Queue: 2 jobs
Job 1
Amino acid sequence: MVSFESDYICGAHPKLLQALIDTNMDAQSGYGFDCYTASAAKKIAEACELPEAQVTFLSGGTQTNLIAIDALLRSYEGVVAAETGHVNVHESGAIEHTGHKVLTLPSHDGKMRAEDLKAMLEKYYADETLEHMVRPGMVYLTWPTEQGTLYSKAELTAIADLCHQYKMPLFLDGARLGYGLVSPQADLTLPEIARLTDVFYIGGTKVGALCGEALVFTKNNQPEHFLSFIKQRGALYAKGRLCGVQFDALFTDGLYYEISRHAIRLAERLKQIFRDKGYAFHPETYTNQIFPVLPAAMIPALREKVRFELWEKLDEERTVVRFVTSWSTTDADLDYLESVL
Amino acid sequence: MVSFESDYICGAHPKLLQALIDTNMDAQSGYGFDCYTASAAKKIAEACELPEAQVTFLSGGTQTNLIAIDALLRSYEGVVAAETGHVNVHESGAIEHTGHKVLTLPSHDGKMRAEDLKAMLEKYYADETLEHMVRPGMVYLTWPTEQGTLYSKAELTAIADLCHQYKMPLFLDGARLGYGLVSPQADLTLPEIARLTDVFYIGGTKVGALCGEALVFTKNNQPEHFLSFIKQRGALYAKGRLCGVQFDALFTDGLYYEISRHAIRLAERLKQIFRDKGYAFHPETYTNQIFPVLPAAMIPALREKVRFELWEKLDEERTVVRFVTSWSTTDADLDYLESVL
Amino acid sequence: MVSFESDYICGAHPKLLQALIDTNMDAQSGYGFDCYTASAAKKIAEACELPEAQVTFLSGGTQTNLIAIDALLRSYEGVVAAETGHVNVHESGAIEHTGHKVLTLPSHDGKMRAEDLKAMLEKYYADETLEHMVRPGMVYLTWPTEQGTLYSKAELTAIADLCHQYKMPLFLDGARLGYGLVSPQADLTLPEIARLTDVFYIGGTKVGALCGEALVFTKNNQPEHFLSFIKQRGALYAKGRLCGVQFDALFTDGLYYEISRHAIRLAERLKQIFRDKGYAFHPETYTNQIFPVLPAAMIPALREKVRFELWEKLDEERTVVRFVTSWSTTDADLDYLESVL
Amino acid sequence: MVSFESDYICGAHPKLLQALIDTNMDAQSGYGFDCYTASAAKKIAEACELPEAQVTFLSGGTQTNLIAIDALLRSYEGVVAAETGHVNVHESGAIEHTGHKVLTLPSHDGKMRAEDLKAMLEKYYADETLEHMVRPGMVYLTWPTEQGTLYSKAELTAIADLCHQYKMPLFLDGARLGYGLVSPQADLTLPEIARLTDVFYIGGTKVGALCGEALVFTKNNQPEHFLSFIKQRGALYAKGRLCGVQFDALFTDGLYYEISRHAIRLAERLKQIFRDKGYAFHPETYTNQIFPVLPAAMIPALREKVRFELWEKLDEERTVVRFVTSWSTTDADLDYLESVL
């Protein structure tokens, strides 16, 4: 069935699969000590315009989030996130399992506001009992957010400035980073994101890879013995090449951007299809996830023809749904959707 | 360079790669809710002759060990292992990171002895202060062991009987299970292992897959909400199909055994090559890892020609080394080794 | 200086001190296996009218909360609390350190509402991605609350009914339980609380003891090997008698109630003093903590004469402060306060 | 019954009880911000001849061990201990519960040897796979040991030198420190111990207090926000004065030494009683724990008259038992024992 269920419905972008085939019989050392991993890390550092960036490849988003956060916080510190943040909602308590509280700020279409962060920090530092409270130790945000929205350069800079002032690392979850970078709405580049954050990750799983996220420490701030840290959490691939080969391909000849642009072009066309049929968005987004508002009554029949996710019930009559595009989405899929709408 | 460094030096067995190619564009749900994962689980349950076996796919060995152990122990319980057990030595403290002590027994060529286990349990239960001690909560063993040896059916049965008597689950780490099952020395079958253990895993990473281990709960004893448990530890693949497709191929037409037999045939030939040159083994093994004793003086020159691991210094003159075979090892590799020895 | 800073400003109620003196030279076994601990546990079970209640003595509130919660939750479960709950705000992240999320509900003068709890549970169970979310595993509430308020019998029963329906244990933090039980506003007795909850604790530290809280499992539901569980968390006293002797005295001849009534009488008189001077309360409470609203300008001079805590800034001109009474507060203290106001 | 069961069979030394009575009604702030805690900390720093020593009071030994160890190790590091070390045997897995492995060395009458430690460290640093192994991060030893023995100044210095060389903190568990300091066999003073270690604790519970251990960071190396760290583990007393008052008394006019000397005098007399009756020791010790070897056949009858612990079965006929003295032991207790032997 034609599916807009997520950006991880198919295998790998054909060029990544080809790279796996081409390198398959080359004997290499394990645990990331292979030439492909080294090459991928170097290409990513160059793309970030940060020669000293330290790049590690992990298998998925939750794993990357919990490792980055646990590596940077002291035990009694928490991570500040929008209340809709992935770490707060959809990771089965993975962050708390590492011992850390997620300190939440109100979400505005998936984004926290610098002024809310500032107010939280000022309140905390003014409290006479602060040693009995969880110390805000770092800030986590997603870009694009879980709701498909984007922080602008001004918004991200304001948050980064606060982090700097309060000596808190800023961590950006880029599970769908590519879709943000090529969004018609974006005013941030990869090197800018690398400079504004202390650590961030470049999503592979949702941007064409079978698996894999590239975690980047941008300020020569990767903790010592990080390989042991990862191994201890069961997150070290014996065949580290699996991520290395794929990311090497993603960062060769701009494939990461090419994949992202394809998905964005189709997402924009998808929006046009819904708009032409008279449907609104909640909110309107400019990345690869779009959120049309549909009459509740039409959804069951539509779901028999195409796959998509229910997102939120607005009221008895209207439901927000989610449609997602990726490298594997085709114009034919959209033609079909148009025909059944 | 010709490499006998490990059984994870190359990518995937070509048939697994082909399966990934063939299924690549088939849109499926994520998180293991795809048809390939379902099919692989069913084939494994059948191969175990246990229709009610519950099968979950995880990315690597340490991850699988820590999840299985943490899922089955109460917080104040520990896992009993041979002191050479992987969980005790080579996982950067992953088990302790889950909060559990590894209680060790002496290793006899990598194996614990049932009589030592019995003595430990009797001593523990006779101690007046036992509530202040770590309670032996389960038993962990590897098959084949880290030293390439195998528990016999009698040995495994004796341990399983003790586990049963003391109500402790028996967990078998089968990272290299295939090599044990087809070993000339083995007297255990997959269904027998499934029946004797409470939980075990079938290694994929070291037996031809890019990644993946199949964790099998054999007694309808998989903990409730196990998906949340896995997700919380960052171990749930978004593209669960990655493991599903590979294990489906491994358990189609006996490929898992075919791969293992290839490696064992070459390991036996490798032993013959060393034996013919007059080298002994320490110990002699019958799986895909062999441990020749070489004069220390010859090792540096040999390492310039082929890759292998140093294992243990016997004395100033003699060093035990490790040579490993796998699906990617060829007779040509062995011809070359023979020529340079 | 005369102090209304908290209910733990002095040592122990003289009768507890006398009991420690009287029993001091009696040789007893350690770790709670002494006759005083046994006697205290028995008296508490009787006071609860639950002969099968299982009573354990721990040193303080945070320790008791983290042990009770960690003992009852599975790793991926969280504890539901009002957002003002002590476990959510003032325990330096102790609950998260055990690996569990605190799931918050809005606070209404320190209390959660059954309807909000119901809505949270219904939303969770209706979510298609619930396995990726933290499972509500138990409910935590304080009685009296951190804000000095009390759940009525109807309110507590409504919450207990929901807990029962959703199979979630209900845990009541009674750090100041005595002050609730004798409050003019209370309509709940100790046996009723014991019956409505699955586990609760009777606070000693804030009700006359040097240290100690009595944790009560009410439904024969204390986890197995609970002594090991406690020992593993560093919470087992070698001289368990320290708590045993004090609680034995507290539950002899109604001393626990007598101490509480004394504090409540003085708190009511304190309210009258403030009311007579024209000050309002925010909110008005009927336990041993009262919250007058004072002009910000008068606070510095007042604090030079008596000790009390700043609670919350209402606006630029008005600040809520907290005055607390206990067994050690005297009418003379109040006379003095009246004279300086 | 006359009891030699442990050094925590009675309440508090009368002078400590008197100090609690004397200070009972003095209103003080909570959480260790009282004048008695400040005074006790100052006296201990002076007794250590280390004005910058940072002193914190905790309730018991296991709690102190787990907090000190968890505060100083990174997650993938372990603590090195003799295999008989309290943290390895009798804390229900408290150290592993904080996530850290206890790396064991052979015990020689309860002590590790510097040469064994050196060999362990050299082996670890020579291993090519060390990043997959638990990193030795600190050293733990007890003084006196669990078996009543003492490291000499030369032995402790050799271990401290290795720790220094390998940049590992040295932690000394002084649950029974006083008994070591006044032992006829000791050649170490409190200031020497303070200088040789990075962190150690002065036991109160077993040396006359109701509860309490004084944790001393000796090199201005107490972790930041240590109060939050302690609070998060449920180890912060609301009435911090409970420990403060007792330790203030213990370190006034040499009471800590006086208590210890009393116990040692009686222990030496106890040894003489057993020696006179022809019993040997296993091993002979010079602290407040003595270990006579008794005929197994005589033990049941003796246990009906005096309390003591069974320690170890030497063979079918002989059992090592433990007799312990403390401030509460009297010459009359020994006269009685002598009469029944």
Job 2
Amino acid sequence: MANNKNRLIYLPLGGAGEIGMNMYLYGYGPKGNERFILVDVGVTFPDMESTPGVDLIMADPSYIVERADRLEGIFITHAHEDHIGAIGLLYPQLQAPIYCRAFTSAIARNKMERAGQDTDAVNEVAIWPAMVEAGPFKVGFAPISHSIPEASALVIDTPAGRIFHSGDFKIDPDPQVGEAFDPDLMKAIAQGGIRAFVCDSTNVFNHHPGRSEASLPSAITEMMTHASGMVVATTFASNVARLKTLAQAAVDAGREVVMVGRAMNVMTQTALSTGVLTDFPPVISIEDAKGKPREKLMVLATGSQGERRAASAQLAVGKYQGMELKAGDTFLFSSKTIPGNEIGVARIHNLLAEKGVVVVAEDDRYHVSGHANRPDLDRLQTLLNPDLVIPMHGEYRHLREHAELAEANGRKAAIAPNGVMLDITGEPRVVEHIDTGRTYLDGMVLIGAMDGVVRQRLQFALRGHVVVSVMIDEKNRLSDGVWAEAHGLPEPKQGSFDQMLEAAMNKDLEKAKRGVLGDDEAVERLIVQACNRVSKKAIGKKPVCTVLISRMEG
Amino acid sequence: MANNKNRLIYLPLGGAGEIGMNMYLYGYGPKGNERFILVDVGVTFPDMESTPGVDLIMADPSYIVERADRLEGIFITHAHEDHIGAIGLLYPQLQAPIYCRAFTSAIARNKMERAGQDTDAVNEVAIWPAMVEAGPFKVGFAPISHSIPEASALVIDTPAGRIFHSGDFKIDPDPQVGEAFDPDLMKAIAQGGIRAFVCDSTNVFNHHPGRSEASLPSAITEMMTHASGMVVATTFASNVARLKTLAQAAVDAGREVVMVGRAMNVMTQTALSTGVLTDFPPVISIEDAKGKPREKLMVLATGSQGERRAASAQLAVGKYQGMELKAGDTFLFSSKTIPGNEIGVARIHNLLAEKGVVVVAEDDRYHVSGHANRPDLDRLQTLLNPDLVIPMHGEYRHLREHAELAEANGRKAAIAPNGVMLDITGEPRVVEHIDTGRTYLDGMVLIGAMDGVVRQRLQFALRGHVVVSVMIDEKNRLSDGVWAEAHGLPEPKQGSFDQMLEAAMNKDLEKAKRGVLGDDEAVERLIVQACNRVSKKAIGKKPVCTVLISRMEG
């Protein structure tokens, strides 16, 4: 029967239609009985705008959790949080072997351990042409340059053909640390044909060819040579190549290197212990640095995105482990501000300006992106010559622009945002729409974005909270008056808001018909109405109103 | 006595150390008995990050409110919200005559009327060399180009010399609507010498010379000529010149113009009625537009900053008054995204991309800034040749960079962020630090940023709210058990969170010594402790806990 025909499906659960929380599913087999592999299990970060109090955000894994018995493996392309961050949290529901390269494995095991999961689930793999068998799939890790060590594209062989899943990448012939982009490797992979090229879309709007990490050292060295005081440089902790570039530039500029912030130390140690990094300039401790002239120091600090707890923010506010910035010092953002973080980064910039520190930010001479620009996307398309291009890792506008780019080159393209299942066995077609969404880690609990928990908190933030306690005696009479407390709400000019609320509620309850006080819902309704009426008139707001009714037993 | 010597002081209350809510005070007279003028009474806009539920933010006017009897006048440089937005709200406390030019007056009267204030307080003034006498000050309005009609610099004559307060400005020899930047006027104003040049710092980090509004029409016309479907263009509603540029470009491209969104209609009508705008291409109604081919239409829409209620957002989501965008239409952001609004603008961009609409954004060909860039700041300094430069209208980093620019040119400069009072009678010196801050319009009530109201709401948003009701009888015994309700908090895996809270609280209350239940504070402390203990263990959070204690009377 036709229904038993094997099909190859692609279903993004996260990362397609947004930048962050990547999670892509591939399936092969008869409809309803496919075997699956999952690529990346990332997180994205909460904000006050939509997710106050939330600790981490990840894709809703329900679709694959419900089919976890058919999940053959989890493949992690690289160790950035938006690709690996949720592995420890979601592993209990997925329970499939995890595959990644050495550096990524070290990070993955750390996450598994912190989540109380079995680190043995993490399997270290060799690079392509070595392949991992996972049900109907064979998966190879092809080294590709990015802004973290050992980033890999996945070569996914299926009975319906080969898929090239780019992961995050850039075209860098000289990335300073780790493997260069290798066009010959790409051609070799593409030799038997590529069914689908699933590709990073982050920088599709950038029309300039990408720049190599190798373009930075001389400019940074020159800058550090001419800077008058101490230099502090910040970048992503996981950008080990950049850390090395910055440290080497400091040494070449006659400065000693100090490294502050836990994440940078973890990343360099991991890179050294996994053999990714073979040489790193000597680093001295903060204590040792204290005796040295400031113009002979360069401090590597975490917090390039303005994170309040990171070393950069602490140095901007005051001291970090006794170290303090002074007028004439220089602060280098060797980074790009991620959209949404502008205000936090500007805050640091302003604090530093108040101290008289020279701030160098958003300067192309001192930073290159980790993602392929438009001409680079073009180039990899040409090298792979795929039957089909599927843009991923981008907001909808990026996916669309990327698809149009492919089409302009005479290629077939398909846009599949989160939840859109594509059958790519033959001509790509949408075969199903899956409910996808977000899962929040809220304290210690995983909740759904639509559970209403965070929505309730947002309502409190916007509207304040009036809490009312009512005691009703055994004869359904009001015992004493109501007690109302307004929280997070202004006092009106006319006097005590609580008293105004209580007066109106008491009056309404006293006027109420006999039966009303016997009915909790009716009492609550009456109180909420009084609350809305008084609040609108007195303060021009409509608070959330919670009513606690205590009934005395006879 | 020396203490009776007259002094000239400058005190920014808002706008120096931030971009937004401009409010600058000038004083002249003996210390403690100065007469004052206030320049601009602006607002800034709330966000979820720090001010959820707040309607508007303005500078704390306390310093001048306490001295309102010595306030001689309020001068408004131009009608942007960050300069005029709070006039109606703060007028009741200020009660001084308001002076501005015709277009600004129309907007000011509208704000006064909506706040229930006397519109006669607004006085329409002629331009410099006409001067308004205000105590020891004489103030003239010097036309200067900006992105709104009739923007003015203020020429403030004092017994201690002339101050040039730039307001917001750019150097535009051909602004399309309104007065061009006039170097001869500047030279004439500077003829007798300029004591202090208080100057816009917004674009000090931009090293390119500013571009004229006149550079846009041909590029926009060409773009609208080649666009295939309907074109929608958005920009700031108050940028009347841009509205005209866009409308004229549409006509030149063979399109008819529709204008949607209240603010744009108000602004163009105000510009026409005050004579600022003498010709504007014909505009047709949405109804009339419905019969026309879409490639013959250009729609001007409000909402260039991604505002959710504006026409652009509504068109991106679905329909606006029956009008709908289709694949192949073009959407032009003739604007720059203000930092902090990136996510909102990207949201619209993505929604439009999903519809297949071509989005043109952040493209210099179709937008020029309203603020002077670094070379333009240089140029105006040279024209005015002031004794002293005081940067305003910028975050601290802008003020600092601007001061350094002036100093690099061999000029004296002084940085005074909000609350720093400068005596500029002779050598500039800081004479006082005033407590400044922010005032929130929260619903209908003005509250201080430090009043704790909004902080409380933020705590609810971050931590959730546990509400507990306790009934204690006349003999200080617990009557029934406590009632606990968790709001905005997740359910732990183990079961009902409310029940877990109640169980722990009841247990602790039952164990408590006899005296405890007679003491409200002790009861509350005990319950909050139980709440923290249970919450930490069950959900990993520490909620806000409110305890309502009802005591039964004997």
